[in-house]
Amino acid sequence: MDRLELTRDCDAVKIPQGDRIRLGAGTEVYMSQSLGGSFTVQAPTYGGLFRIAGGDADALGLEMPAEAKLLAEGGGDIDSLVDAALRTCYDPEIPVNIVDLGLVYDTRISDLPEGGWRVDIKMTLTAQGCGMGTAIAGDAEDKIRTIPGVKDASVRVVWDPPWTALMISEQGRKQLGL
Length: 178
Description:
Structural class: alpha+beta
Helix content: 10-25%
Mean pLDDT: 89
Order of helices and strands: EEEEEEHHEEHEH
Shape: globular
CATH superfamily of the largest domain: Fe-S cluster assembly (FSCA)
Strand order of the largest sheet: 1-4-5-6-2-3
Number of strands: 9
Number of domains: 2
């Protein structure tokens, strides 16, 4: 794991609880993974693993990932942008995005009277006992909210129908070597 030091205060999400926290400038962190435009770091001073958004890459002394730039800049239709945002969300234990894992069951995009959109997502997890559910749903919600014009977003974890490996897309199967 690469050792880094935060160059400024930075918002993060504690894994797996999903609690939001502010990590202080000068904090020593160790890069665990970088997938989907966000970073998972270990911060011994704060006692655990944390997810840092791609928009805060500079706090790690890194460039903003391409996925995070795409979402921040917008461009394209809202359906494509929501799909792109969801494809940047990963279960930290599985290197396949939540769309290709077959975890996203329903996406509804509503026009708001004052302009912009509300996005509601229903998703599931690979197992009901998955401790990462709150963090994964929160990550998806946060990334959807970064899309220009999205005024509100909600990601709800559901258990019906139960997830099976048959729901993994062809692309996801290739990534997993299935």
